[in-house]
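step=encode ok
step=design start
structure_in=
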């Protein structure tokens, strides 16, 4: 969701400024943002596997590294039921995003360059979103496995598409700003936050109900919250998000996404019910490693990315 919104907004801003989208620069900026931390992460995991793991388990790590670098890990996990869901399975969502980065900027550039109207661009996005939801529903009733529906791009891209739609609405100033609409959307956003909190604390990621409509509802809930935060930045929720610790977590979120999974596996072991001490230890160690990665790996390349953005 958030990636679809941010990327679409940035691309439309560039188009408004220059009447063009420099795809080469876009892909270079994405590589500088995501690549360095990922490469260090994979290198260290590969080194750990080589030194400490037996041949079979190390081979799984090496295979996962290759799949991660090729950005197809989500499809392998989705289509091969016997594929071991190992430590690098966490990169499935990164693969989905990278596939989106490869396709959507090019599609949007073609639509804008061919002078397709804003209305038709949004209709195309809505049609794509509807097709994904209907396709996922059809696959479920046809007996597709949960892994197929959970990890594959064609069944999980509706959140990204909804983010693209919100990005278009915001960038083109098409969101109503009347007092009635504002109050209505804020009430819905509050209900959405409660709904999302309920999902986080009660629904496990392996629950089949997720692919039976909950994913679509969760995407809509996030969209409503996002619209309130962007259109009415003076809201209480936005002020809470400016709380320094939350801002910091947002800055290092990518590294935290990468590192929390192996740290979790190392500290939790095979335990399905970790102790409070294990949870706290995993959280602290994840934050320490992520902070080191952020300052010594990500920051130098982010500085280069900023220079390219202003070039």
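sequence_out=
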């Amino acid at each position: 969701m958030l990636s679809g919104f941010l990327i679409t907004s940035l691309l439309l801003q560039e188009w408004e400024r220059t009447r063009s989208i420099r795809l080469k620069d876009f892909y270079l900026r994405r590589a500088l943002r995501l690549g360095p931390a990922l490469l260090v992460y994979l290198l260290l995991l590969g080194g750990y596997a080589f030194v400490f793991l037996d041949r079979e388990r190390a081979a799984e790590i090496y295979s996962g590294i290759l799949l991660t670098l090729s950005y197809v890990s989500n499809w392998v996990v989705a289509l091969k039921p016997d594929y071991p869901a190992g430590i690098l399975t966490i990169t499935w969502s990164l693969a989905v995003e990278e596939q989106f980065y490869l396709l959507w900027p090019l599609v949007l550039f073609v639509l804008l360059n061919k002078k397709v109207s804003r209305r038709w661009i949004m209709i195309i996005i809505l049609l794509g979103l509807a097709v994904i939801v209907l396709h996922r529903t059809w696959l479920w009733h046809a007996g597709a496995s949960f892994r197929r529906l959970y990890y594959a791009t064609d069944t999980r891209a509706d959140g990204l598409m909804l983010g693209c739609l919100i990005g278009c609405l915001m960038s083109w100033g098409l969101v109503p700003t009347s007092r009635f609409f504002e109050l209505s959307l804020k009430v819905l956003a509050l209900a959405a936050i409660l709904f999302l909190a309920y999902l986080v604390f009660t629904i496990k990621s392996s629950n089949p109900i997720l692919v039976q409509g909950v994913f679509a509802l969760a995407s809509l809930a996030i969209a409503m919250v996002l619209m309130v935060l962007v259109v009415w930045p003076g809201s209480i929720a936005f002020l809470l998000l400016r709380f320094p610790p939350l801002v910091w977590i947002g800055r290092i979120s990518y590294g935290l996404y990468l590192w929390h999974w192996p740290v979790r596996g190392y500290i939790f072991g095979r335990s399905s019910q970790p102790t409070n001490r294990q949870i706290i230890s995993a959280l602290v160690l994840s934050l320490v490693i992520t902070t080191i990665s952020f300052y010594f790996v990500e920051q130098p390349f982010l500085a280069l990315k900023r220079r390219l953005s202003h070039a």
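step=design ok
step=annotate ok -> The CA atoms of residues 199 and 218 lie 9 Å apart.
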